[in-house]
Amino acid sequence: MHVDNTFFFNEIRCNVRSLGNTLYAVRSLGNTLYAVRSLGNTLYAVRSLGNTLYAVRSLGNTLYAVRSLGNTLYAVRSLGNTLYAVRSLGNTLYAVRSLGNTLYAVRSLGNTLYAVRSLGNTLYAVRSLGNTLYAVRSLGNTLYAVCMKLSVLYDYPK
Description:
Blueprint (H helix, E strand, L loop, with lengths): L2 E6 L5 E5 L4 E7 L3 E6 L4 E7 L3 E6 L4 E7 L3 E6 L4 E7 L3 E6 L4 E7 L3 E6 L4 E7 L3 E6 L4 E5 L4 E6 L1
Antiparallel strand pairs: 1-16, 2-3, 2-15, 3-4, 4-5, 5-6, 6-7, 7-8, 8-9, 9-10, 10-11, 11-12, 12-13, 13-14, 14-15
InterPro entries: TPR-like_helical_dom_sf
């Protein structure tokens, strides 16, 4: 299972590049529209409808939606057989759970460290070096790096 990290930010336009064969770009069109495009055959779009609803749509057979219920709960649902939920416990803990055999967790240690761990054979980590650099590293053959100032960080399972 692969975790594709999508980052939301204000004012700064950046790209998330893979050293593999796929390129994902995160673009800010004003303050409302964010798009994540794959150079493959799939297009994912993240749209902000006001301040409450974010949707990730696949042109394939799967639809993922991220909804904000107040300021605390975000849910990522798959129309397939898997349900992912991202919950905010206060301001510090976010968890991504799979109903399958894999568990991913995003933990906030203070304001600086976020980690995404897989119980499988792959480990992804998101580290904050000050307020400007976040890196997502895979123990496999692919390295993802994001250099930007983030205001909000979301993770979308894929």
